[in-house]
Every structure is written in structure tokens, then in C-alpha cells.
Amino acid sequence: MLRENQRRFKFDWLTIILFLLLVGFGYINILSASHVGDITSYFDTSQLYGKQLIFIGLTFVLIILILSFEAKFYERFASLIYVVAILSLLGLFVFGKDVNGARSWYGIGSMTIQPSEFAKFATALAVAKYISDLQTNMQTLKDQIRVAAIIFIPALLILLQNDAGSTMVYLAFFFVFYREGLQQIYLVVALSLIILAVLTLKYGIVISGIITALVLVTRYFLRKKKRASVLQYVLVLLVAIGFSYGVKLFYQHGLKVHQQNRITIFLRLEKDPIKLEQMRKREAYNLIQSEQAISSGGLIGKGFLQGTRTTGKFVPEQETDYIFSTVGEEWGFVGSSFVVILFVLLITRVLYLAEAQKSQFSRVYGYGVASILFVHFTVNIGMVMGLIPTVGIPLPFFSYGGSGLWGFTILLFIFIKLDSNKINEW
Amino acid sequence: MRKLLLLTTVILVGLVFIARLFYLQIYGGYEYDVFEDSAIKKEYTYPKRGYVYDRNGKLLVANQPSYDVMVIPREVEPLSDEALDEFCRLLKISKEDYNKKFERAKNYSPRLPSPFVSQLSKTDYAVLQEKMWKYVGFYIQKRSLRSYQTTIGANVLGDIGEVNRTIIEKQPYYKLGDLIGKQGVEKTYEKTLRGVKGIRFIQKDRFNKDLSPFKEGKLDTLPVPGKDITITIDARLQAYGELLMTNKRGGIVAIEPSSGEILAMVSGPSYNPNLLVGRDRSKNFNKLYKDSIAKPLFDRGLQAMYPPGSPFKTLNALIALQEGVVTTEERFSCAMGYRYGNRKMGCHAHRSPANMNIGIYESCNAYFANVYRRIMDKYDSPAEGMDNWSKHIKSFGLGNYLNNDLSVGQPGKVPTAATYDRGYGKNRWYTTFTISNAIGQGEVLATPIQLANMAAAIGNRGYFYTPHIIKEIEGEKIPSKFTTPKHTTIDKQHFEPVVQGMFDVYNKGTANMLRVKDIEICGKTGTAENFAIIDSLKTQLTDHSIFVAFAPKDNPKIAIAVFVENGYFGSRFAGRMASLMIEYYMKGEITRKDMENFVLRYSLEHEYQKPFSNEPFGINRQTTLEAIDEKAFQNLLKQKAEIPR
Asked: Is B429 in the same domain as B553?
């Protein structure tokens, strides 16, 4: 048996080092992206980089706090934490403050706090708690609906507060559910629906319907054994066509104009190349600027504080959602790849640790952490490089902002704490 | 399996991202070029362009400030109708012009500056400058334009104009709207004259506001002023030459034989160099450019290639002596021409038989036909003879580019055996086929500058310096190719009899009425037949009048070639003009007023109209002299009086 004081430091230091590297490199890039004129003092709190330094300082207080609680605390109070998070989201409708059209912030003096950043770990805890319950069987529809409800509530609240990007993050839990026994068919259906949606938007309902029919017919003839009835196949086809209509209607009427434009530009739905180009210039200014900034970085970048587009603040939101464009410009291919690799390492490390957990609660939670980080990483960097449509969510540990940094820190360090406790599980 | 879904997805996404980064930053990424970076504003300071002085230190070309309105289309904010009206009024353009110019600038590049309205006058600039803040995306760029201190020498001095896109692509130093030498010394000494422009790099922000010097101004450079140059032209002689050429077409090139320096380089018709300065430059340039009849931009002194005619005979005499195929005293008879086979090359009435001296000053065709045959027949085959002859001729700078510092030129033509092999088939031609070369017709072509250089080489008794126009560059040596003599293939001792012959052209021969008191001139008249296509018929026009001379006989100070289109026989116009030029250069004034009056008074314009008259017309003997009216004549005399001392 390890003695108490030895056990206290039995944290996964690799994860912590990756975390520190990300936060540190993130700070350097925020400094570049946000400085105006010469940097007189790193602690100049009238500047964003000064504030971020304070946020980082407070982060360490937070870490110590998180690690000093008993690991059991998080499992025990998971439901309570979840309820508090939901209440804080609900409170926004009454006390919230509008920033850029989204009602996602509480204003306390000059500080603002974004509860949706904290709702993520709370939801992850609640999901872990529910799934790890011995009564729960993810194979049953009843539990599937209940666990879906756990993520649906915060997701809906955030959507109502006009923060579609953060809502999307909750799709991350799909990976968790799948790991914990959700049937394969969901994965197949989900992928099929994504492909069908894209086909519908790009080529219209008729063609996507024909393609669906062809796929179904092929499947029908390939499957000699246990073949479902023709009627069922027809039903599936009808549902698919119905879905296509739904997608079309949603695209045309359900989306806000700017969201619609983002998809139009991304899928090149506008046939006239000149109009498309004009639209790109008008609607995708951020993307054009960020791609230009990244491209101009070349192999090794222009160097710290030397990015001309960063210094000129050509990319709007470059210290928050578009921080990766600064990395691209000032640190080039080498620096940007380094960041990508750091994230991949961090996420896979968390996954590895999660799989090594003996308690199901810790494993599910760890999976949740990895999934949330993964979605943020994919959506953010994918968006900045023009690989997916524009969705405004921050890059974990990198983007400027206290709520985000703290939310991700709490998310990660609760897991580090849980992980450090795995020996005591028995 | 379930464990692997997220793991593989994460790794896959990581790989896709790195591939995308590779595509953006390395594959599709370009070499970083600060000039392409729209985040960095480039501000240019244009240096003073070097001045141009004549050989006597007279200032010919200086500078004047000019203001261009530049536009960066992407940064332009839409103007209200009122503001647009005012802007157009200030720029003196119509609204349609505004839209057209704006579209053109945008098509070139939305983010690089293009000139919007070039070369505002000082007063327009003063008014506009006050209001410039209203027009976002437009700014005023100060440049330096040329200010000609003279009205002569347009073909010599050349002009500067905006660079075109082809130049920008080849020479990235130039940016749209920059000025570059287009013709004359402005073109050949562009790099010397222009200096190097200074540049300041300024970091801009998204709203196009200046933030700070880029990299603390480490990349900024100061302008390097252009160097002044002195050209070899004698402005007075040039002015006088242009005056003599008034109402005529043709070229005069005068060279100082002891140095190869070009003293004058006249092309008629000429134009005032000030036409190509300022906002009307392109309008005026187009007018000159599109005049396909008078072709004022065609430098006849440098580019016009003609059969040299009789002056070429002197070279055949020299070659014959060098090859030892005749002696100076050997005589050939001339019965009004030279018969070969059943053909005849005509000649005029003169003493016969002729020795070399008589042959030259009487310009006897039969004499030179005989001499030419001797040169050719010295060798076993006409081909060998022809190549040997060709080599001698080329050593006088004929048949090839002079390789000098003038912006235009032509190689002329000197045939070789290969020329005739191509025409007739190998070894299927004889000396008689080429006999016209004996008298400078046939396959020989030369430009006036080549003939002037030939005269210089004869005057120098066997060598010349490549004719050039640069005399001095501030703090620089002129290229050594202009200071090293080039030797002809003729030995020095063979020149005396030929020089004597040319001297006797003035004493007893075809130019005896052109003599100048106290100056020993050696010269040779020439006439060149020429043709034009009229209604798809080859029609003969009045002969070109040609004269080649140098003076004085020993240690010549000036060698000159004059060529007047359709001027008829050599001494009629070209001879007179050469004689006047020599006198003007050597004495500084003209003693023979009647000769000067003749040249100034008589115009050849009617001659040039003939091919376009749609009527039958007479040439040579049938032409008459037509005088200009008295007022115009007095005007020319006044111009002459105004040539500064």
C-alpha cells in the first residue's frame, strides 16, 4: 500500500504537462493576437493578455481546489452539480447579459461569466453518474431516452440563448454512449443521415432519393439471409425522403440567414461561381482572412509578434475563436502541427487513461472529457482552416477568456483527480 | 471495437489537419513577399531623376514635380452622389470616366495601388489636396516629371512614361504608375538616371489605419538620387540640323572621328519633346505614333536603311588597294557606262579613261565596276571573293548593329556568298550578278549613322570608335567599348589616295559648288533609287539625296552623313546640308547665306504628297523645287537667330 503523502502526487503527469504546454503556448499567442502597440507590462490588465495572465493564475488556484477534494465527492455530488449548472443556465433568461446577440453571460462588475462553459463538465458528470448506475443498461430504449434527456436539457437551453456553436458540443456525448453500449445501428443511421443531408442540399431531393433507393436495392439483393420484407425497405426509403424534405425545409426556413450562408459557401450550393465568390467575400471574411494568415506563415512562420496580419488584427475574433490563425501565421507549419499533435496526444492520453479506469463512473467521465475536447478541437481548427462550416466555439486552453479556460480546466482536472484515485477503488 | 471509434477518429482528424496545414502553408503557401502583403503599406519616395547636359554643359533636361491620384480599389468607400460630382469636377473627368477608370483599376488588382488620374497640374493638385481626406482609398503620389529646357532633340533625349504590365512582370522594381525611360537616352540610361526609389513599410490594421513602422523600419530604405549625365550631343549643332531638316524627311548624323562621340543626330520630321510630358502625353504620343506617313517616331538617322549609293565606292577603292588588285594610276575607260554580257550599267559624261582619283571624284560607275570585278576575281570562285570582300566591308561597322548606347538601331545589310547561294543556288551565280554592289546599290543597305561612322573611319585612316552618345556619367567611367578603337582591315597607307579623291570631290568633282572657305572637306555624293507600292504597283519615286563627308582632311573634327528622302541628287540637298553643318560646327556661323537660304526655303513636302495624290506624277528630272511662303521662311530665319550661342 502506498502511503497517503505518496498517493497525493500520483497524478498523471503526462496529461498535466500537455495541459501546461497548451495553456502556455495559448498565452503566447493571445499576447500576439491582442497586443496593441508596444507591450509595456505583461500584467497590464487593461489589455486582454494581462487579463488572460490573471485567468491563468486563478486556474492554478482552481486546480489545487479540485485536486484537494476527495475523488468520491464528484461522483456523489454529480447530480447536484448538474442541477446547479442547469439552474445557472436558466437564470440567464432573467439575469443574463446580451453579448453579440447571444444571451450567454452573467455580468459581475466588469467581469463576465459564461455558464455554458461550466455546464459541459456538469453534464459529463451527470452522464457518467447515470450510465455507471448498476440499473442502467444502455442497450434499452428507456435508458437511452433518459440519458439523451440529460444532455438535451442543457443543449436546448444553450440553443435558446442563441449559442448554436456550444449546443453542437453536446453531440460529443454520442461517442460516450457508443462506447457504453449504444447499438451499432445508431452509428450507421447517424452517418447515413449526415451523408443524406449533404446529398440533399447539394443535389436535391430527387437525386438523393434515387441514390437512397439504389443503396437499399443493392442491400436487398446482397442480403440473402434474414432479409427484411420489401415493405420495410419501402418504409425506410419513405423515411429517408421525408428526412430530405425536412433538411431542405430546415435549410431554407429553419436557419438564420448567416447560418444558411455559411452552409451555402461551404457546400458551394450557389451554382454561379461569380455570385459564390461575391458571397464568400461578403460572408466569409473571417475565413478568407484566417486562411490567408495561416498560408502566409509558411514552414516556420513569421516569428513571435512578427505576424503582419495578426498585428494588424486582420482576422476578427483572432484572440478567441480564431486564435489558431495567429499560430499559423507566426509559428508556421511547424508550430501549427505542434499544436495539432499536442491536442491529439492529450485526447488520446485521456482516452487511454479512461479505458484503464476500474470504476465505470471514472471511465465514462473520462470518455466524456475526451469527446468534448475532441469536438472543440475538430470544430474550431476545422473552421479556422475552412474544412467545416463556420461554427463559433473556442479552442480549449488557447482561446482568450476566463470561463472557457476554467471550464476546460475543471473538466480535465476532475478526471485527473478521478484517475489518481483508481488504486483506492477497491 | 467500441473502444477504437473515438481513438481512430481523433488520430484521423489530426492527420487531416496536418495535411490541410501542409496544403495551406507549404504546398499552396507562397514565398512570403512583403510587397504582396496587404497588411503592410508601402510608401515610396521617388528620387530626383538625373539631369541631362549637352557636351558643352548646357542643361537639356531637368525635372518638375507632378502629382498622381492613386487608388486602391478594395479600400474605396462608396461616395455619395454629391461627393462623387465634386471629386469628378476636381479631377476634371466625367462620371463615366470615373467608373471606367475604377473598373480598370479593380481589374488590375483590388488591393494594389493603380494610378487613377495621372500628372495633375500644380493648381489642380493644390485644390484637390485640401479635400483628399474625403475620398477614402484614394491618395496622391508625388512623382518627378521631366522638364525639357529645349525644344530640340526629341529623338535623342527620348521621354519617360508609365511602365506597362509587361515591364512590371519582368522587372519587379517597377510598380504600376512608375515612370520609365521609353525612348532615347531616357531609355538607354534609365538605371543611371532614375536612381533607386526609397520605400517605407508601414503596418496597417484591418481598417487600413497606419499602426507603426513595420519591423521598426529596419527594411525601410532612403531614395538614391539618379545620376546626371552629359551627352555627346552639341545642342547648337543639333538645333541647326533640325532647322535645316525642316519640311524635309531624312536623317543627319555627325560624329567626332577622334572619339566616336555623336555630335548631332537629327531625324526629320521631328517634334517638340515637351509634347510627351504631362497629362496629354498619351494623346500626343498616339498622334505621333499613328502618323504612318511622316512617321515622326521613326528615327531616320538610326533606323532608316537604304542602299548607300556612291559613297560606298570609296570602300571598294580601299579594298582594291588592300588586296593589291589595282594601282592608283591604273585607268579604266568609261563609255557612258560599263557593259557586261548584254547588259549595261550607265554612267554620266566625264573624263575617260579614269584613274582612281578621277574615278572617285567623278563617281565613275564603270571604273568601280572594273575594280569590283578585280576584287572578286582575285579568288578562284566568286564565293571566296564575295566573302573576302564582305569581311572588309563589315570591318567598317556596316552590316551589323553598332552595339552602342542608342535606344534604336538597325544592322543594315552586307551580302556574303551565302546571301547569293540562297538566292541563286550554291555556286550558281557569278560576279556580274552582284555587280551593283560596286556602286553601293544591289544588296547593300546602310543607315545614316553607319555611313557617318564609315566616313569617320576613312577620316581616321583606318579605325573608328563605336559611335556613342554618353560623354560623362556623374562619378562613373563610360564603358571601355566606347574608348577602344576598332581597326578596319585596310592598312593605313591605302587611305591617302582615297581621301585625296574625296577631297577632290569638293575641288573638281560632283560637290565643287559646296566648298567652304578655309575648311578642307572630303566628301562623297550619293543618290539612291527607291520605290513605293502604289495601288499594288511598284512605283519609282524621286531618288534619295545622300552625302557623306568629313573635315578637315587631316585630323578630322567631324564626320557626317546626311540623307534626305526624295531629295534627288546628292549635292542638291544632302550635300548642301552637310556642308552647312560642317561650317556651322567648325566656325560657329554660316558665311554662305544663299546656300542656307536655299535649304531653308525649299520644302519637299509636295514630293512626299505625290504617292498619295492618286494622280500620275513625275520624278527626278521632272520634279521642281517648291518654296515655302515668305512668312514661314522668315520664321525659320528667326528660329536660327534664336539658337543660343
From this structure: yes
